[in-house]
Amino acid sequence: MSSSPPAVLEVASLAKSYPVRGGRTEAVAGVSFDVAPGEFVCLVGPSGCGKTTLLRCLAGLLAPSAGEVRLAGAPVRRPPPQMGFVSQDYSNSMLPWLKVDKNVTFPLRHKGIGARRRAELAAEALRVVGLSEFARHYPWQLSGGMQQRVAIARALAYQPEILLMDEPFASVDAQTRGELEDLLLDVWATYGVTTVFVTHDIDESVYLADRVIVLSRRPSTVARQVTVGLPRPRDQISTKELPEFTRLRTEVMRTIAQVGGGGPASSEHRAPPGSSRVAASP
Amino acid sequence: MIRRGLLLTLEIAVPVLLLAGYAVWAARAQSFYFPPLGTIQERFAQLWLFERVPDDLLPSLRRLGIGYVLCVLLGVGAGLLLGVSRVVQQAVQPLAEFLRALPAVALIPFGVLVFGFGDSMRIFIIVVGAVWPILLNTIDGVRGVDPGMLEMARAYQVGRWGRIRGIVVPAALPRVVAGMRTSLSIAIILMVVSEMVAGRDGVGYFVLESQRRFAISDMWTGIILLGIVGYLANFLFVQAERRLLRWHRESKGLAR
Ligand SMILES: Nc1ncnc2c1ncn2[C@@H]1O[C@H](COP(=O)(O)OP(=O)(O)O)[C@@H](O)[C@H]1O
Ligand SMILES: [Mg+2]
Prior knowledge:
The complex is a heterodimer.
Chain A: E1 9-20, E2 23-35, E3 40-44, H1 51-58, E4 66-71, E5 74-75, E6 83-86, H2 100-109, H3 115-128, H4 144-157, E7 162-166, H5 174-191, E8 194-199, H6 202-208, E9 211-215, E10 222-227, H7 238-241, H8 243-258, H9 263-270
Parallel strand pairs in A: 3-8, 3-9, 6-7, 7-8
Antiparallel strand pairs in A: 1-2, 1-4, 4-5, 9-10
Chain B: H1 2-29, H2 37-51, H3 53-84, H4 86-101, H5 108-115, H6 119-143, H7 147-155, H8 160-197, H9 203-212, H10 216-244, H11 246-254
The structure holds adenosine-5'-diphosphate and magnesium ion.
Magnesium ion binds near residues 52 and 167 of chain A.
């Protein structure tokens, strides 16, 4: 899995700094990694380390200060076609004047896809995320977890070749979160979409990924890449019981502690492995 | 249910009682300025059902309609432009603030000079005075659009025009409509004033002319008619708003 397939996404010495009063804040400093077609990569790092900045650069929403992002060999300068994007604050990406199905088809309408095809894609995507009955509801009539599923359905209906997600499950309850993680893995396995998933939750990263890229504190650099060889399909209980899961999780956690993540090292003592979630930052 | 019934009863009872009070009082007072209710009623039926409707009411409504539509087009159009582009806004803001602070009626002499005594002058006054709430609210509404929505659209390759049409306009709509409502009442006031100051027809002109002829009952019928016009315009507006912005009302009601 390590080097053989050609990369679909290449990140080369990417750096981004923001102008602030009296200088610049360096958010990302020289990040390089590749993502293979169909791979599921998680980016983990403490809050404020520059994960969102990095992902927005990957998405072509933000111009890097230095370095380059290439998608299928071509430099990314603006959001590329066939890219699905689910942001950290999903509720702000819902359009409250449109019902759920129209929220899902919003990007398709502007892509010039006909009404009948749009309806088909929306129905299919909503079925996959289990929201078929709520197609004619408004997003604000749904719970947070359901709105997040709408955001995922919107990405699916777009039929992306690459899916970028920024802490999509950070603000839903633990139970819903497990369900959404499994839903995402199902979708990923079915459609084979290349996925870059940002999280600050170590358990989540190991549970989901083929490979975990651990970022340092701000300005972020790649501290370590951990290949996850856990068998698929994964299961919330049995996968997390595997000794290999515990080992990987500890490895990621240790890396974060070494680069100055702070919190995780101490919470490891309090929480028995696998029984609770450990965040990369308090 | 009982509470609603009570409120509705009150809503009807208060105006009826006031009218009855006036009728009783005016009949006894024999005041020149406050003719008996029966006389006003009679004159109202004679004048406005429907003899003078084409002569005075329709011209007034036409001015109001054209002026108001122009206010909406200009206010929303310029507001979108100013709200979207920081540069244009910087350049135009001071001028807009000045013009807005200027009482529109002060421009009537100038309007007469340029447009003469016709409808153009009156429409000009309505636009100059009533466009501001729409313009400023539109700018505010555009500014207040959630960046998260715009970023989502950008990530999905929705172009600039698509983002304006698909996100900025609907997201700003509640503010725009609030501005349109304020603007409507200002437009009605300016319609009346412009007809009084330099008019040959219209309900405003009729009120002033009746007063000059000492036809006090006629004057009151004009005033009452203006009240009815304002009330109906606002009523229709609120009905349209309810339909158009149902999502806004309900989403706000739901958010704790
Ligand atoms: N638009 C911006 N202007 C200035 N500083 C910013 C901006 N966006 C993010 N930052 C700063 O960059 C750093 C990284 O932010 P972010 O990428 O959001 O981190 P994360 O997603 O890992 O929590 C933070 O210190 C943040 O304050
Ligand atoms: Mg973030």
